[in-house]
Structure formats: structure tokens, C-alpha cells
Amino acid sequence: MATKKTVLFSGNEALAYGAYEAGLEFSAAYPGTPSTEITQFLSQFKEIDSQWSVNEKVAFEIAYAASIGGKRSMYIGKHVGLNVAMDPFMTSAYTGVNAGFVIVTCDDPGMHSSQNEQDNRLFARVGKMPLLEPSSPSETKELIKKAFEISEKFDTPVIFRMTTRICHSKENVTIQERKDVPIKNFTPNPQKYVMIPRYAMMRHIELENRLLKLKKFAENSPLNKMEVKDKKLGFITSGVTYLYAKEYYPNASYLKLSISYPFPEKKVRDFCKKVKKVFVLEELEPFIQNNCERLGLKVYGRDASFHIGEMKPDHIPQIVAGKTKKDKPLVNRPPELCKGCPHRIVFNTLKKFDVIVAGDIGCYTLGTLPPFNGLHTCLCMGAGVTFQEGLSKSIQNKKVVGVIGDSTFVHSGITGLINAAYNKTKGVILILDNATTAMTGGQPHPATGKTLKQEETKQLSLEKICEVCGADSIDVIDPAQVNDFEEILRKRLDENNLSVIIVRKPCILMKQKMHPKTFTNPTPGVGR
Ligand SMILES: Cc1ncc(C[n+]2csc(CCOP(=O)(O)OP(=O)(O)O)c2C)c(N)n1
Q1: 381 lines ligand 1 (CB under 6 A)
Q2: What is 5-220's CATH number?
Q3: Among 8, 26, 174, 205, which has the minimal tally of Cβ within 10 Å of its Cβ?
Q4: What is the DSSP secondary structure assignment for residue 515, as one 8-state letter?
Q5: Long-range CB contact pairs, 201-209, < 8 A, 24+
Q6: pLDDT digits (tens, 9 = 90+) for 286-314
Q7: Residue having the nearest C-alpha atom to atom 2 of ligand 1
Q8: Distance CA 50, CA 39 (A)
């Protein structure tokens, strides 16, 4: 008989554990809050081949290919990570799976640590894949198992959408034994796996038929649960809003959607017939609400002020009262670069130059805040290099410096540097090499020479890669040598070249942040 044990898990840990129980064999990810701990937790399981990949596109393709090869696999990333993986994502619904493949996307309503708050539920419609949404850690653990079953039953990738609140909240979760799933054979099938237009057209027909079957499944599945109590007041919910509403209105009726795409139209109609006044409670976009409106159903949505930011329990009665959003003001606690962070020296030095600074995403983005006020742009990962090129080709009266971290350079800076050299760009790019991915808690990447599991591996040389990309000069400098750093920056700015300066000093927190080397038992809470 399977052993039953209860463990306090965060949503991320519960997801990882549920995937382990489901027989997951392969996972690939790039770090990103609030998703990072899933992969860190998975790394303890010897049964699972898990990796940090160089970016989300690569992670997606590798994990998806592992599924086609016959292993239950998972891609994991933060919401914007899926943008990077959009190309393989969009066609993967055509090609379908062999063993189960689950796309975990961790959205960040409220932008606790992100550059935008896009609602990735919308991608389910665009990508034509089923969308699962849990509302708590314990439900996460069970629902992720269903995701693999649905993936295999319907030959489709499945989107599993988490949000920050569920990723990082903790709950007692009952764990079970792993069920090993035999690796499936890979049978060559070019009509399914080689997407030339003719085959893709056939797969598109297959995909539309599959969506009809999935719709039927969503209609009849107990995962879309109707609880009819008070027939005067009801809520259609998804994700964490279910629990928030239950706190305020325990006697109301509920339609809890765990499969929110394909939209279970009949069930929703049925619920609206049974209950007089129905509110739709969801975070960010009016995804469910628009679906209800499309059906001509009279439901009450939220004021547009609720389309921005995270849903909080106190918002529920405000929505029921038809009010605009009101939040209690919080104490302002702006983040800052750590004391002793090498990035501080970079921005103190940059201050002495009258230059435009194209920034990127990493701890160094905090260089935009006082006292440094050091960045002029920051859009997405990799844009420290590409914005250096674009800005320098339009701004005539000032030099442009690009600033990018080591992990981000490997993620998406390299292609920009090749482009800069190819298109005869001039200027200076600073690679702030603190030997880790500091912003997300200190994960290794190819230039650190360590894998997710802290094994030694081939180490990417930043110097060599910059050279072959076509940089005219590559300097390596310790920013603590303040005068030398300033001197070399001045020299390179005066030249009419494409220069890379690798500013190399380890992150001050690296020792504490380093993810433990080995795990013995599934130990919740480690590897944060
Ligand atoms: C597409 C995408 N993936 C992941 C993230 C999360 N993220 C932001 S910056 C960053 C890397 C930071 O590492 P590095 O560039 O080395 O800078 P550091 O924080 O170490 O200074 C990550 C993983 C993101 N914002 N966007």
C-alpha cells in the first residue's frame, strides 16, 4: 500500500512533488520568480533528469523533445519566459506529444518581481491547448498529475498556470509514492513531427478536432466543480480567487474552474441558470468574463481597476458591491543593491560619464534607483545589448553603453552582440560577471561551469565568445580596482570601436545563496 505522509509544502514544492509522483522523467527551465523553486526542488530527485537551460526557448524545445522521445517531461518558467519560448510553443499543439508534456507558467499578478503582469491564460486560446489552474498547494500536487494524464489522453501539451500567491504560499500536503511510467517508444512519424506546410495543415485539422474533444472533457470533468448552496449569490472562480471568495462568502454557490480552457460553456450556462446573481472572480484579464459575455450570459464582472494588480481577499466584497479597487496603503520599502554589491561600483563609475545607459534585467536593474539613477532603458532580457545598438544608431550627441549580467548575456545577449558586430555598431558593452544568476537567488549558468545539480561541466568562456562574436576589444576588470576600471572605460569610450568590458567580481551573497549540493530526502524549504 502507498505510504501517506503530510509535509508542509509551498505551491512550487507541491508542484515538483506532484510531478515526481506522476513519474516525471525530464524537466528543463530557466530561473525566474515565482517559478525558480520548482526546478531547485526537482533537482533532488535522482529519478528525474532536470536542468537549467540557457533560456526558455531552449528549455521548452528540449523538454518537449524529451516528451516526443518517450519520457514524461515538463517545461518550467515565469510568465515572460513563455514569450521567449513562443515559437516552439505555438507549433507544439500541432505536433502533440508522445509521453505527457506539461508547460508550467508562473504568472506574477502584482509584479512582485517582473517587468510586466501579462496574463498567460490568454496563451491557451492562442496556442490551442488545455489550461489547468490550481487554487492551493495541495490542489497543485494533485492537478499536476492530472495534467500529465490529460496530455497523454488527448495527445496535447497542457498549460499549467500558477501565480505568485500559490507558488509561494504553504500548506500541509499529503505525499504519496512515485508511480514510475514506462518510457514510450519513439516511432518515426514525419506527418506528425515534421511540420512542413502539407503535414502541418493535416495536423491543424487534427488539432481543431482535439479541441472539440477537450471541450467535452472540460464540460464533464469533476475538475470543473459546481457547488450550489445559496441560489441568490454565486461565483465563477479560477485560481486563488476561489479561496478568497470562500473566506468572505462561505454559503454562496461556486463554479470552480480548474480547466478554464477550453471553456466549459454548458456547465457555465447551467450554473448561471441555477443561481440568480453570478459574479466572475479572476485575477488580471477578464478571461472568464469575456467568455461568459460571448455566450450572452448576464454575469457581474469586476470594475476595470481590478484588471491591474494582484487580487487580495479584501477585494472580494468590493467587487460584490460594484466598487472600484481600494487598497490599504503599504509602507514603501524600495529594493536596493546589497551593501558590498560589485554592481554599485559600476554605477558609481558610470555616473562620472555623460553617456546613455541601455540597461537589462538582473540585480543591476536596481541601478536605475537613487542614488545611482544609472539606467535610461530596460525592457526585457537581452535588450542591454540590442538597445545599445538601436540607441547608438539614432542618438547622435552621446555615446551609448550597454549593461548586461553574465546570466542574461548567455540567455539572450550573445545573438545581440553578433548582430552588433555584423552591423558595424560602435560603443561599449559592460558584462557584469558576478558568477551567478543573482537576482533569482543564485543559480548556476554555462559561464559558471556548474550544472543545476552542482556538477562540474564545460565552462563557457565569456572572453572567447565575445571575441568570436566580433567585439573589437575585450577587457576583463575587477571593479574594485576603481581607477583602472574608470580608465579603461574612458579609453574604450574614446575609441570608435565595438568594445566589451567584462566586469568580474563574484556576488557578495553567493556563498549563502548557493543551492545545496545534494539532497538526501525530499526536504521542503531548501534551495531557495
Ligand atoms: C524572459 C525572462 N526570463 C527570466 C527572467 C527572470 N530574471 C530576470 S533577470 C535574470 C538573470 C539575472 O542574472 P544576471 O544577468 O547574471 O544578473 P545578476 O542578477 O546576477 O546581477 C532572471 C533569471 C526574466 N525577467 N525574463
Answers
A1: yes
A2: 3.40.50.970
A3: 205
A4: P
A5: 203/94, 203/95, 203/96, 204/94, 206/94, 206/96, 207/93, 207/94, 207/128, 208/128
A6: 999 999 999 999 999 999 999 999 999 99
A7: 81
A8: 7
C-alpha grid cell, residue 345: 561600483
Ligand 1 pocket check for 406: Cβ under 6 Å: yes
Dist. CA 451 → ligand 1 center (Å): 17
Instruction: Pull the grid cell for residue 414.
Output: 550573445
- Whole-number Å distance, alpha carbon 406 to ligand 1 midpoint, is 9
Residue 134 Cβ contacting ligand 1 at under 6 Å: no
Produce one character per residue of 308-317: b if its CB has 16 or more CB atoms within 10 Å, e if not. Answer: ebbbbeebbe
Q: Within 190-230, where are the H helices?
A: 190-193, 197-220
Which sequence spans correspond to the domains of the chain?
5-220, 224-320, 342-513
Digit-coded pLDDT (tens) for 215-240: 999 999 999 999 999 999 999 999 99
Confidence (pTM): 0.96
- Cα 32 to ligand 1 centre (Å): 7
Q: Which DSSP symbol is given to 501?
A: E
Output the CATH code of domain 224-320: 3.40.50.920
Q: Mapped to the 3 state alphabet, what secondary structure does 453-499 carry? A: CCCECCCCCHHHHHHHHCCCEEEEECCCCHHHHHHHHHHHHHCCCEE
H helix or E strand, kind and range, residue 356 = strand 356-358
State the distance from the centre of ligand 1 to the C-alpha of 437, rounded, in angstroms.
6
DSSP string, 176-201: ------PPPP----HHHH---HHHHH
CA of 31 to the centre of ligand 1 (A): 7
405 CB near ligand 1 (under 6 Å): yes
- Only one residue has cell 558595424, namely 424
Ligand 1, atom 13, lies closest to the CA of 437
Domains 224-320 and 342-513 share a fold: yes
Q: How far is the CA of 25 from the centre of ligand 1 (A)?
A: 26
Q: Is 60 in the pocket of ligand 1 (CB under 6 A)?
A: no
Lowest mean pLDDT among 2-11, 218-227, 502-511: 2-11
CATH code of the domain occupying 342-513? 3.40.50.970
